[in-house]
Every structure is written in structure tokens, then in C-alpha cells.
Amino acid sequence: MTTTANRWRPAVALLAAITSVLVTAGPAAAAPGPPTLADSNGLTQVGTSTGTSTNFVITVTTPEVSGQHHIKIILPGDYYADPTKRYPVLYFLHGSPDDPAQQNYPALTMSNKMITVIPDGGARSWYDNWLNQNTVLGAQNWENFHLNQVVPFIDGNLRTIATKKARAIAGVSMGGFGAFHYAMDRPDLFSQTASLSGDIDLSVDSMDLRLAVVASLVDALGVICSAASGDCSGDKYKPAVDSDALWGTPYPVFNGDRRWNEVDPSQHMDKLSGIGISFYVGNGGGQATNPEFWLEGAATHVKDHLDALHMPYYFVDYGDGSAWGNQCDGGHDGGCWEQDLLDLIPRLERAFAA
Q: Which of 100, 115, 172, 294 could form a disulfide with 72 if both were Cys (CB 3.0 to 4.6 A apart)?
């Protein structure tokens, strides 16, 4: 006759085995977080990095620009597999009034051949050192921040190929201007530059774009909103500053706008000689209320200047977006910029590998 103890012996053994496995295995391993980066080149990290080990955001302070600033970093999926492998870098500049953390284009995460860095460009930095450093905004040396601090900070902390050939700079909208402007100012740093719907003509030939820059400085949208008794809580162009704060007077009277002309990409495309040039634009569906309608004219001016200089370039005017498929409506939006990036990134990879 089987005793009670004998009947329970198999169940006890099974329970012991399960307990042993659980104790040995312990809790599931947590997903690795962002790597630890060292402060350097005038950048001091504050707070805690957020994200994953290959897609994360750090927050820094710098004496060059007041306030705290996000830097988003996207590493190739195999970054940790081979500790000796080094990578080229794409610096990607966001538009106005965006934030690096909002730059979630899937195309930026698909490359296993480059590192992507998205530094904060503020709501209206226009990617330059402001003429007036004494506005209510405080220090506004954005070009110093990006080129003299962020670039060496990245090279010092990550396994980059720290050469001109292995760096590209691209951007959307305001960032498209910044990409051309930085490549013109520092051709020793970048071998490729690309504008996606960028404000790349700020001459009197595109006075509409020049006045759009002014509107961001003086908070013209906020003034209109207030006058209409609307909800202005989301306005990112406050507080207003003087229209001259960035590059002096924007008005073409007695050469008073000379600084605007000096930074205007369209008039100085010769400075990009030897650098790979790409630019993309749509037509906003032919609607003058869409910013892309005006940016198409600016891109055409740049193309004309390049043709006159007999310089090579890669230009895509996708018009109403039908050339890019149903994800793009030809407007000034992320759907079209994602398609631009899907075209641009493989081309950058080939250029880096050449």
C-alpha cells in the first residue's frame, strides 16, 4: 500500500526543481541603458540620460548658450559587438521650433554604418552666433556650441572616425539652412551637406523667407495670436527679441543687411566646392499657404547659382509628393522628410565608404 508521503514525493521533487531554477536564474536582466559619457569641451551633463543603449538623449549646459540643451544620439545596432570598430557621423539639425528628442524619423535608426547626432538648435537659433548677446535670452553662440563643443565631445566619447571625410551635416527647414551654413563656415569638418526643405536663400530674392526669420525673432505669431485673443500658451517664440538681434538689420537699405547677405547660402555656394551637396524640396501642392511653396523658389535659386558655378550637386524637387509615394503630400512636414532621408542616408553611406 502506498503511503501518503510516497504519493506526494514526486510533487515535492518537482516543486524543488522549479524553485532551484527560479533562484538560479533570478529576475530577468534589465535592458542596458545609455552609455556613460564624460563631460568635456565645455559641456556639462545634467540630470539622467534617457532612452536605450543605442538611442538616447543627454542634457547638457554650456556657457556658449544659456539654459539646458538636449542632444540625441543614435548608435548603430552593432556598436557594442566590436569594440574596435569606428563609425562616420551624421550631424542632423532639426527645424524650428522643434527639439532633438522629437526627431523620431525611422530612417535615422536604420543605418548600421553611421552614428547620428541631433543637437539642440533651439526654437529660433538659426544655427549661428547672434550679433547681440545681451538680449533677454542671454548667450546665443549656437555655432560655437555645435562646432567647437558638440563635435569634439562626440569624437572624445564615441568610436567615431574623426575626419572630414567621415562627417556629414544635414537638416530640415531651419536646420537645412544650418547644414549649408556650417559646411560653408567649416569645410574642414564636413565632406557632405544636405538640406531638406531648408531656408537656403535669405537674399532679397527670397524676402519672404527672410521675413519668416524675422517673425520668429520678434514673435510675430504671438502678436497675431494675442490680437485675436487666441490661446498663445504653446507659442515657443517668446520672449520676443529685436529683429536686429541675430544678424543686424534685415532691411536692404544702404547695405544695412550686409550680414544677412554674408550668411545667405545661395550667394556663397562656391564655399561648398569639394563638398557633396544634396537638397530636397516640394511645392506644397501649389498652395501659397504652405511654406514648401516658397521654399521651392529658394531651392531653385540655389540650383541656378550652382549651375552658374558649374558645381556638381544632387537635387530632388518632389513637387506634390507623388514621386515619393503616398507618405508625402509635398508639404512642409515629416512625412516628406522621412522619404528624403530614406533616399539620403544610403547615399551618405556610399559616400563614406568610397
A: 100
